[in-house]
Structures are given as structure tokens and as C-alpha cells.
Design goal:
Elements: H1 2-42, H2 45-49, H3 63-69, H4 72-104, H5 111-123, H6 128-137, H7 155-168, H8 171-179, H9 184-192, H10 197-213, H11 216-221, H12 230-238, H13 253-293
Length: about 300
């Protein structure tokens, strides 16, 4: 019996060591690209272009960041992206709450049918062209609302929030509030939402990251450069190599090529930094809300 327990403990130790080793390797795969991009953005553009930078910056310089931040398109993209993220996330969360709360109530007639229709949209969609035609008929093309309204509710987030309401908010508490004379709206505002801060934080983070990284809607619906989000500006630089606006005209061709390489890494950091800063502050809500909201009941 003792030998069997020792064998089980040894197996647990080896399993834990294997898992730690796997997590370390996985972390390196995730951290290395970030360190490489960060180091390249702070290093001499000539060394970056020659591929001599790995994870440690050399010949420190802020030239790439200065060139990026001097460009008006970047600041305009930042302004638009912040607007789309803040306004879009607020609309997303409000609509998701208003849809998830009724669907979490067992007394909603036809609730399962409605939920089934919503789940169906996760697997079968109209496609890009029908969606574009709908947005065009609504007059949203080439407007800020084209970046917000087509993705106003995410069905996956809706299901997570509904599950949280069902499994976490005691039904007895809602029934007691109803007996005391509270309406459904009052129950939602004064009972359900104060107890749902973790899931609200998680869903807000999901939506905020989506809006911050979204460029596809802008690529389809926007032609006015003054409405471009930051990610679309980033795309132009990385994919289409539109770096002429950043390079000074009095430099030679080689110098401009070097500058463009440094600028690519600098603008990646400029575009990613806000979300990297936000995640640590949201993590405690993220873990709790995601685990509870993912429990199916």
C-alpha cells in the first residue's frame, strides 16, 4: 500500500514538472515576439533592417517613436479607435445585459426558442456581401456607426453572461425583491448588476479588445481616411508598406528603408501598448468571471 502511494506521488511530481516545463516553453514562445518587437522599436533602424536584433536593444534610440508620433494619421487613428472602443463597448455591454437577463429567467415564454435562434447565428451567417448590403441600405457606410453597430452583440458573450446570471444570482434573492414590489427593471439594476461585476468586467474586456483590434469592418465600410481606426493605419504600413509619409525627403533611399523598418516595430508597440497595460488590472475579474460564466447549467 505504501509503495502504491509513493508511486502515485512520484507520478504526480513528474506530471507537475512536465506541466511546468510545458508552460515555461509556451511562455517563451509568447514573450519572445513581444521582446523582439519592443527591442527592435528601440534599436538603431539600420541594425533592425540587417536583422541583428533579437531580444536585447542595441544603439538605443527613440527615432522610430518620434517618426511615428509626428505623423497626424497615427494620432487620428488613435482618436478614432478610442472613440470606437469606448462607445462600442458601452453599447455592446448594455445590449448584451438587456438580452442576457430575460433569457436567464425561467419564466420567459419562448426563451429556449429565442436562445436556439441566437445560437444558430453562431454557425450560419449571411456572409460578407449580404451584410454589406444591409449596412449600406441602413446608410451606415463610411460612418463611425459602421464600426460599432454591425457587431453590437456577440452571441458567445451573450451565452456566457446568461449562464452567469442563471448560476450565480440566487433566484430566491430575485423573488424576494419581486415580492417587495420591485419591477424587473429594478431587479436588474439594483440586484443583478451589483452582483455581476466580474462578468461585466470580462465581457467589457472581450468587447474592448475586439474593437481595439478591429480593422476588417473599417477595410470594408470606410473610405474616408479621417475615419480610419489605428489598426487600419497599422495595416497600411505593415502590408502595403506606405511609409513615405514617415520618411524625410532629404534622406537617401537606403536611410528611408532603414527608417521604415524601425517604424513598423514602433507602431506595433504604439498600437498594442494600451491593451497590454489594461490586462493586468482586469485579470482578477477576468479569471473569476470567465470560470463562473463558462459553467453550463
Amino acid at each position: 500500500m505504501l509503495k502504491k502511494q509513493n508511486a502515485i506521488q512520484n507520478n504526480d511530481v513528474w506530471f507537475n514538472l512536465a506541466m511546468y516545463a510545458f508552460l515555461v516553453v509556451l511562455t517563451l514562445f509568447i514573450v519572445f515576439p513581444l521582446l523582439h518587437v519592443f527591442s527592435s522599436s528601440l534599436s538603431s533602424p539600420a541594425l533592425v533592417a540587417k536583422g541583428q536584433i533579437l531580444i536585447w536593444p542595441e544603439e538605443l534610440t527613440l527615432k522610430s517613436y518620434i517618426n511615428v508620433l509626428k505623423n497626424s494619421a497615427v494620432w487620428n487613428g488613435y482618436r478614432n479607435t478610442i472613440l470606437y472602443t469606448v462607445l462600442g463597448t458601452a453599447i455592446n455591454v448594455v445590449l448584451t445585459v438587456l438580452a442576457a437577463y430575460p433569457l436567464s429567467r425561467s419564466d420567459l415564454k419562448g426563451g429556449r426558442v429565442i436562445l436556439g435562434i441566437l445560437i444558430l447565428t453562431m454557425y450560419f451567417q449571411g456572409g460578407i456581401i449580404p451584410t454589406y448590403l444591409v449596412v449600406k441600405q441602413l446608410g451606415l457606410v463610411n460612418s463611425m456607426w459602421a464600426m460599432i453597430l454591425p457587431s453590437a452583440i456577440n452571441t458567445f458573450n451573450l451565452i456566457i453572461m446568461r449562464t452567469y446570471f442563471m448560476n450565480t444570482i440566487p433566484k430566491e434573492l430575485q423573488e424576494a425583491a419581486f415580492i417587495d414590489g420591485c419591477s424587473n427593471t429594478r431587479i436588474l439594476l439594483d440586484v443583478v448588476l451589483p452582483l455581476s461585476k466580474p462578468i461585466l468586467a470580462v465581457i467589457s474586456l472581450y468587447y474592448a479588445v475586439h474593437h481595439w483590434n478591429d480593422f476588417f469592418n473599417g477595410l470594408i465600410y470606410l473610405s474616408d481616411r479621417s475615419l480610419f481606426p489605428l489598426q487600419l493605419v497599422l495595416r497600411e504600413i505593415l502590408i502595403q508598406s506606405k511609409v513615405d509619409d514617415f520618411a524625410t525627403l532629404d534622406k537617401g533611399f537606403t536611410d528611408r528603408i532603414f527608417d521604415s523598418e524601425g517604424i513598423k516595430y514602433a507602431i506595433i508597440m504604439v498600437a498594442s501598448l494600451p491593451m497590454l497595460i489594461l490586462y493586468p488590472f482586469m485579470q482578477r475579474f477576468f479569471v473569476k468571471g470567465a470560470l463562473i460564466g463558462s459553467i453550463k447549467g
